[in-house]
């Protein structure tokens, strides 16, 4: 048993070591990757639940790594936050997303989707953040009303400086603000009263309990309650991670406004969104 234990530790150490090396090599490569445009942005549709019309898209970053292939944000955003590279990377994503939003606006006018972009605490805490956003919008010649910024409650709390001031300045510019992954953090609806927030995105983890015979009555009622309170506060509610018709129907009954998930569309290149905009009714 003793020898076994030792072996287990040796394996564990080797695995941990390999992981450390991989982490190091990923973060070491990131600045060059940014310069060489190895990153790209996919867009996932946001649909209005009543008629399933496309009303927006969420910009989701990916990395086409020359050796490891396609990497999802869960594999590198955390690292980028640790090293600080999230600041230039996040700016790059915002610039890309605004450029794409402008192309959709020029091509489709009123039918162009709102483009929603994720922000990390570290980005929002940069002293130049608000002026950077203004500059990027200006360079793209895009009205601020065409974009939404998504921040988690945790990110808002962790934002250094004055998060409230940052959000107020952005909202004053006309940028929409949504609380991301709502229900997984502090989940305190009352503080939302004091934030210039336009909408909530309900964490996908609620969706599991919202369906069929296995429906978890507590999950369903939680969502029900959150949607109800959000309405009182005048906030738009988007449900994330919607995978089934049963979930979509239930969300509509509850009064949820917008949905996002595999049931409607997976994240993909902008051309896939084009097809949804032009699709005849
Ligand atoms: P998120 O903001 O919660 O984004 C939604 C995630 O759910 C995406 O994962 C999306 O692909 C996935 N998803 C969409 N529909 C479904 C569904 O029906 N079922 C399931 N199971 N999943 C679904 P993704 O693309 O891997 O992104 C992961 C996270 O990485 C995002 O979570 C976001 O927090 C972060 N992220 C992505 N892009 C950026 C970025 O540009 N900047 C920052 N700071 N974070 C980003
Ligand atoms: Ca998000
Ligand atoms: Ca989310």
UniProtKB/TrEMBL annotation:
<feature type="domain" description="EAL">
    <location>
        <begin position="23"/>
        <end position="281"/>
    </location>
</feature>
<protein>
    <submittedName>
        <fullName>Diguanylate cyclase/phosphodiesterase with PAS/PAC sensor(S)</fullName>
    </submittedName>
</protein>
């Amino acid at each position: 048993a003793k020898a076994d234990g030792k072996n287990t530790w040796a394996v564990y150490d080797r695995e941990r070591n390999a992981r450390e090396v991989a982490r190091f090599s990923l973060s070491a490569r990131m600045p060059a990757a940014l310069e060489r445009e190895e990153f790209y942005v996919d867009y996932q549709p946001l649909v209005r639940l009543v008629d399933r019309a496309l009303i927006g898209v969420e910009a989701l970053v990916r990395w086409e790594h020359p050796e490891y292939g396609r990497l999802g944000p869960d594999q590198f955003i955390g690292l980028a936050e640790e090293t600080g590279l999230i600041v230039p990377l996040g700016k790059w994503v915002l610039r890309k997303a605004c450029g794409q939003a402008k192309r959709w606006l020029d091509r489709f006018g009123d039918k162009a989707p709102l483009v929603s972009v994720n922000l990390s605490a570290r980005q929002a805490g940069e002293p130049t953040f608000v002026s950077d956003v203004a500059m990027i919008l200006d360079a793209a010649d895009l009205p601020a009303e065409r974009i939404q910024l998504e921040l988690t409650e945790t990110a808002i709390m962790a934002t250094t400086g004055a998060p409230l001031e940052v959000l107020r300045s952005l909202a004053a510019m006309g940028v929409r603000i949504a609380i991301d992954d709502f229900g997984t953090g502090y989940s305190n609806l009352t503080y939302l009263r004091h934030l210039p927030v336009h909408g909530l995105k309900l964490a996908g983890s609620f969706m599991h309990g919202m369906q069929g015979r296995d429906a978890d009555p507590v999950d369903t009622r939680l969502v029900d309650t959150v949607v109800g309170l959000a309405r009182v506060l005048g906030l738009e509610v988007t449900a994330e991670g919607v995978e089934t018709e049963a979930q979509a129907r239930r969300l509509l009954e509850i009064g949820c406004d917008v949905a996002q998930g595999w049931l409607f569309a997976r994240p993909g290149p902008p051309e896939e969104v084009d097809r949804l905009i032009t699709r005849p009714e």
